[in-house]
Amino acid sequence: METKPDQTHDLHVLIAGAGSAGLLVAQVLKRLNIACTVFEQDASPYERPRDWNFGIYWAQSRLDECLSEDMRARVVDVQTDPSHRPSEDTVMPIYNGQTGEHMKDLPAPFSIRLHRRRWLEMLSDGVNIKFGKRLKSVTTEADIVTITFEDGTQAKGNLLIGAEGAHSPTREYLLGIQEAALLPSPVVASVSICKVSREAAQKLRALHSRYVITFHPKGIFTFMSKEWLWMMMQTWRSDADTGLIGRGKEPLKLEKWHEMGRDFGPPFKEIFETIEPSSTIWHNRLGYWPTKPWDSKGLVTLIGDAAHPMTFHRGQGLNYAITDTAELLQQLNGMTEHSGAELAAAVKRYEADLFPRGREGVIASNENTNAVHDWETMMESSLFKEGLQRAESSQTT
């Protein structure tokens, strides 16, 4: 069965991926009265068992550009703590994981910490989403792009936006599998959404109401964030599992976290000791992809993690996806008419900004990830010295 462009509109945009970037773009297109359909490979919004939270640190004004006035007012309600009101003096505290000593408060003015599922539910409002649609192939002809799904159905439009995240099939179409492949980071990550003892939770909340970062002299980075459950994350350098990049496998057991936790001081040691035994730990190697130019004549493009998958230690990913969307909005607003040619020209202008900006962000984030896993260089890392501002690479190429 084939899905054709909506005949009541002069343009139809296809979006692959119903994550933050894909749904935010859909909201922008809805405001511009450009028809769009979002295709998501998962069978439902609740298929993935893991949920998490993430922050907006420097892209708040760009987010305002993308959302309607009504939806802007709803953002505070999808925070991990809806009672929190962003302020100029908001900080993220850093502690020495080994001693428990407070090292520094990172400035995070007006930052917002979002609960992922509630955030995506908000962005889904009024958006046409087709679930269970895994992309198989892409073809282009004149000003039409046709996508075929693994279930045999097709959809046609004037533009395909790949927003499937780091493992983007659209990026593979644009550049080929080899050129689109993620580069392995020397750092691995383990994440759990878990319960800890009441006493340990109270001690951790006494340090900060929402989150805590620890650096450990042995090169371990830890992030702990509170909702009704705790999001616990640890990263460190490892030569094991070198081929495992971002696939959410579970070779790491809770006993390993207990073992690592023995080197932590209070209250962090108690956190690891009291994690609920049934907790699932997702473990993977981090990957990244310094953005490379592509040329699809304005018919196929990328946004968010599909365009610039980066490591997460400075919390840049969502902020870059928001910036992508705001920049695309600016170019779409510059169209003189709703035609395929004008749309393609707007996409090319968007890409001219995206290519160098995305590459710089990926490289800078990777440099910072490497730095925070070495105690001496950590003190000179961008995260420790500058906080959660936009990443800038020391490299020029």
UniProtKB/TrEMBL annotation:
Occurrences of domain FAD-binding (ranges): 124-337
Keywords from the UniProt entry: FAD, Flavoprotein, Monooxygenase, Oxidoreductase
Cofactor(s) required, per the database record: FAD
Region described as Disordered: spans on this chain: 78-98
Gene Ontology MF term list: FAD binding; monooxygenase activity
Entries under PANTHER family matching the protein: FAD-BINDING DOMAIN-CONTAINING PROTEIN (PTHR47178:SF3), MONOOXYGENASE, FAD-BINDING (PTHR47178)
Stated name of the protein: FAD-binding domain-containing protein
Species this chain originates from: Oidiodendron maius (strain Zn)
